[in-house]
């Protein structure tokens, strides 16, 4: 490619750099970082093919200023934790709504499969949930306390154990995305079938309402965030499957970065879910209205933060730009 053609192909992108550097345009720190990576790639290309051209001098100058601006932006961030959850994460997550939908649909489909299989095979529930759990629950049902399993362990021990276990499951869903998303889909399938079998088991015993108003106190957030971890795994896998204009390694790095941000966003919710299961779910004597209020509030928080709020932040950025 001739130097003139190379310049013509990239001049709009370089112009955006200049606009940012001279405060004529505003982009997020992540966007600036991405543009900087592209600029340095262009600089490397120019050094290889046009070592004595003016393009190298020009790109060197704006790359140097861009580098300073990136690190200046990072130093000025006095409350990164707050800004991450308020702006940085929702803005990034907006572009991954499709993966979230896929993770949810797969999970919901296999939940139905689990319920259907349990309805047509009396041994399926035992195969999925295990004989020990089924036998213990049957004994609790006979004693008139079907949800007694949530009352046996110490509150703090249960809170810590459940939180750690849920994070472990979520990490599996994320990391296995490296298997070109297949591993993540397997985790969604496994957990969906387990949930469907669990719900049908109590439905078959005439306890669907009592079990649902109890388990969904913590399960609304717990299950939702496992699906969100599945979204992170699909983001990671798609980075390998569909590198677009990037090299496969660069695409993987970018998808890993986005996936990790999604996982970080789930940690507070896993803690909340663990707290609810350890300290609140055990109170099966609470009135129905209170249980329903907790469930609907949890669902509203998840829907707002992971679906509605990213759309709002994205629209606000477009308006500001």
TrEMBL record:
Membrane spanning residue stretches: 100-119, 215-241, 262-283, 289-308
Origin superkingdom: Bacteria
One Pfam entry name: SpoIIM
InterPro entries in alphabetical order: SpoIIM-like
Keywords noted in UniProt: Membrane, Transmembrane, Transmembrane helix
Entry protein name: Stage II sporulation protein M
Species, as recorded: Tenacibaculum aiptasiae
Organism placement in taxonomy: Bacteria, Pseudomonadati, Bacteroidota, Flavobacteriia, Flavobacteriales
């Amino acid at each position: 490619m001739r130097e003139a053609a190379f310049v013509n192909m990239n001049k709009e992108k370089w112009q955006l750099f200049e606009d940012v550097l001279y405060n004529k345009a505003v982009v997020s720190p992540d966007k600036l970082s991405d543009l900087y990576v592209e600029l340095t790639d262009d600089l490397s290309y120019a050094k290889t093919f046009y070592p004595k051209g003016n393009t190298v001098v020009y790109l060197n100058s704006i790359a140097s200023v861009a580098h300073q601006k990136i690190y200046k932006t990072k130093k000025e961030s006095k409350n990164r934790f707050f800004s991450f959850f308020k702006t940085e994460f929702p803005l990034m997550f907006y572009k991954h709504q499709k993966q979230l939908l896929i993770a949810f649909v797969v999970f919901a489909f296999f939940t139905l499969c689990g319920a259907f299989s349990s309805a047509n095979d009396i041994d399926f529930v035992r195969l999925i949930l295990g004989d020990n759990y089924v036998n213990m629950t049957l004994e609790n049902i006979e004693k008139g306390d079907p949800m007694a399993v949530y009352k046996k362990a110490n509150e703090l021990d249960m809170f810590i154990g459940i939180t750690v276990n849920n994070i472990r499951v979520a990490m599996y869903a994320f990391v296995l995305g490296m298997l070109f998303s297949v591993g993540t889909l397997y985790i969604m399938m496994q957990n969906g079938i387990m949930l469907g079998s669990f719900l049908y088991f109590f439905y078959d015993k005439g306890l669907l309402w009592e079990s649902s108003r109890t388990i969904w106190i913590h399960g609304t957030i717990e299950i939702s965030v496992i699906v969100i971890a599945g979204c992170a795994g699909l983001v990671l896998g798609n980075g390998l499957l569909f590198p677009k204009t990037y090299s496969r390694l660069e695409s993987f790095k970018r998808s890993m970065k986005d996936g990790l941000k999604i996982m970080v966003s789930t940690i507070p919710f896993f803690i909340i879910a663990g707290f609810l299961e350890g300290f609140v779910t055990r109170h099966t004597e609470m009135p129905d209205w209170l249980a329903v209020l907790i469930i609907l509030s949890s669902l509203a928080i998840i829907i707002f933060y992971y679906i509605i709020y990213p759309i709002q932040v994205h629209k606000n950025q477009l308006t500001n730009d």
